Amino acid sequence: MKHRNYLTVALMILSLTAGAQYLNVQISDVSVPEEPSIMINPLNTDQIVAGANLDSYYYSADGGATWQRGELSSEYGVWGDPCIVVDTNGYFYFFHLANPPSGSWIDRIVCQKSINGGHSWSNGTYMGLNGGKVQDKEWACVDRATNNIYVIWTQFDEYGSSNPLDSTIIRFSRSTNGGLTWSEAVRINQIAGNCLDDDNTVEGAVPAIGPNGEVLTSWAGPAGLIFTKSTDGGLTWPATNIFVSDIPGGWDLAIPGISRANGMPVTCCDLSGGPYHGSIYINWSDQRNGLTDTDIWFSKSTDGGNTWSSPLRVNDDPPGKHQFFTWMTVDQTSGLIYIVFYDRRSYSNNLTDVYLAISEDGGETFSNIKISETPFYPTQNIFFGDYTNISAHNGIVRPVWARLDTDQLSVWTALVDSIHTGIIPDRRLAEPFSLEQNYPNPAEYCTHFPYKIHTPSRVSLKVYDLYGREIITLLNDEFHVPGRYVERLDISAESLPAGFYYFSLISGDQSIRKKMIIK
Question: Do residues 295 and 282 make contact, with C-beta atoms less than 8 angstroms apart?
């Protein structure tokens, strides 16, 4: 048994270190899942929650290595467009469209809450109900300074209508009490769109938080890519929106083998405290280089969204291939930018890989890494949804995507950890300590834990099993003067079985946790 465990561990290490490959984990293939969302809990990066159309939710307690699935239900109905966020208490929120038994199809945005890591969910609350008008394509974010939750979406007067009197607008609502109640929805865009759900419909608003608590967002529509922000937590919005870029060919993209694809924008802001703190980023895709050459694009603002850089091409392959279904996040502990997307650079047909683009310099340059282990072949008759997703915190990166194998859809993630090469935000210098990786790792008989103390501190060093249970205390609230220290763990004496473990350095309410392997 021990030799078999050792072989499994060795294979996992090879997967994580061999070129650009990272261990791929199937989250689920039940109930034709697509259009996934994922979120890491910053308070415990082993706790991850995900969702997929129409009503699937998933939760992991081991950093995404294994997953459990459930089906979401609510008296307001569950009708797709999953969005998962987490608040400062570690409570998760699942936003989605509605299909109420008494009401109209997608007539409101529903929010369901989990206080136990995604194991179970509340019946839900809702926002945006406006007669029979359609409320569509919501996204949410949490202000980690106030714990306010902000949601932005598109309202259709009548979905699919060609009547010029019918229009689409962008609406906003917020909760200041953990999703119990929501403010009256308000319009935040200047130029309305049509109701055809095409290039001239206003769609794709994703909110983000600015460095002073601003609510930031952008969307696509007849005026191109548009940005706006509220400086008072969404209570008021400016009368004039800001132009970011044109979107040649529009956001409604034609991709071979994909029944519907969009290039809608994603907005993020760097709040890391590093050299790019306060920079606002927008990521989208379009076909400005031709109908056979869809690309991933990026623009940034360093003046609060007043002016924007010229679009930068993120995918670094030669021209002529399709890259699509993009999503972006910022690791707020490092300022690194991560963008996940589908990619066909290596093929002449519809075979598709998944790539990750990373920027360590505030979006000036991007490196591209293939993160899917094998390609897949999408077909026109299988719906893939409208987006992928990605979450990152403290070097733990979890992209999520749908793939198709022999007409069977499934949802996957990749275990991408500590991908960057040494960028450390300036604010880390003020932290009381830093923790290095144990060595050797994997370890069999003994291992060592090096760490540095930057300011005089009382620290504890503890080891936990895969389920987060404390099993060994190496240091217990011991005073240290500044310097570098190394603690030794005798694995043989402790009789620890082979497997994954965690170790944490703790001082007051601050802690750093890392993984280790015992073989």
Answer: no
